[in-house]
Amino acid sequence: MPLRKRAGLPGALACALVLPLSGVAPAQGQDGTPLLREAVTAYAKYSYIGQVQNTDYGMRRADAVLFRVEHRAPDMTRRWYLAPEGLFGDSIISRGDTSYDVDPRTHRVIVTEDDALDDQVAMDDNFGLLLHNYRAVMAPDDNVAGRRTLNVLLINRYTGETVMRIGMDADTKLVLHKERYAASGSVAHEMRFEQIRYTGDIPKALFTVPTAGFTRISGPNHAIPSNDLTAVVRTAGFAAAGPKYLPDGFLPVAGDVTDVKGVRTLHILYSDGLRTVSLFENARGAAVDLSKYTVHETKVRSGTAKYVEDGPTTLLAWASGARHFELVGELSRDELVRIASSVST
Amino acid sequence: MTQHLTTEILLDYIHGELSPAQDAATYAHIEQCAGCRSDYQAEVSLGEMLREHAAREERELPSLVKAEIWRRVRADKPQTSNRFTAWMRPAVAIPVAAALALAAYFGSIYVAPHGAPSIEASYYLQDHAAMNTTIPFNDHTSANPAALEAAALADIRRVAVDVQPAAYTANAAP
Fold this sequence. Notes:
Chain A is of the alpha+beta class. Chain A folds into 2 domains: 8-218, outer membrane lipoprotein receptor (LolB), chain A; 229-344, Phosphorylase Kinase, domain 1 (2-Layer Sandwich), CATH 3.30.200.100. Chain A contains 5 helices and 22 strands. Chain B has 3 domains: 1-59; 60-116, no CATH class; 119-154, no CATH class. Chain B has helices at residues 7-14, 20-32, 34-58, 63-75, 80-88, 90-111, 121-131, 145-152, 167-170; strands at 119-120, 156-159. Chain B is flat. The interface between A and B is large, with 89 and 54 residues.
């Protein structure tokens, strides 16, 4: 169905039912926190059809994906990938905390569960952490996909750096445009709606997962990570090491323990409410396989460490005896090396 | 690929050790060939059984049972000459041999420090992204199907975190 097709009278009526009246938005330079709160819940309130482009900017190149999206509030979404060619025709259907990655070429459906999506307590805690570490400041209005957007800048209270710009639909507060900036000020990630049409008329059948002729494969199941980090570390079964240095505002917020190929692996997530970094460690001498990436070397303390870049995300790996560490995050490489160098038991 | 798959190829496929081209060809062959699919499922079942067995073996004996065993051991110290023949009795030798075989199997795959498996970078990237879902304005729409697929094929098991019951702290003195 062409997305630019006029909705007609039924569509207009549906829009009238789903769209609220525009409120008075804060002026430029004022506090944008109330808008942020509305933006967090807008996804669960409004149904829409649209087209989105996501771009991840690496050090020397950028990766973009283009997809159509159909979202039926509160929690059913289907994405059809249009580009790049390698993903063309793939789709991801999300129903609640379960996602189905449908690959029509190999006739496979990968089923993934992420219970963390139900963890409203953690989401509220992390939103509180964000407001503690960032100022939300209104910026000039904009226009995205033919709709007026209100822009909020998230400015780090410690460094004064703008880390994210969020463009919300002036009527629904749905996030239509988002830019995340690297420490240098360059754009690290951009999400932008190219088209959007709000409609309450999206049938449930659209989110049916194909079964005939498709093989279902169980993907990684992500349980709700624990915020009882003492228990997480105890479960790891080895004396865990942690960073003595973290950027201002960062705290350990969640963790879990996983057996990967039989190797018990501890994962702790540190965050300031917006940016995150993960520290993985195992005590069984299991190194990371970086063979599918371009590998670079750097130093962690006096030892050699390896790192790879996947869009804006860096994975830094190093070892100390049988203990292997992997640090993953979107922070600058210098910052990651500084954190890694401070890791000790 | 028209020939049937060898056990070595199947094992490498299960452990993700094949090159991407071999992996794809093996996957396609298993989809089409009932015999190889059956062999594949048998290998997967065997691996599962051995892992479950190893997990069961890790459980500790109840303390009273351990205490009773030690009591009997101390009360009945064997002669040095009897020790060798005692080890050779079938009731002891067969379980010991089975345990050694299991240890050798897991040692070769998981335990040996020099033969420890390598873990795909995609696992770390995917798990990092998954744990980010509770972070505000994290981009839920940026999931990469290719990374998801790589992570799906890895052998990953969540370990239940041993959280102490809340009563331990609730009853603590103020």
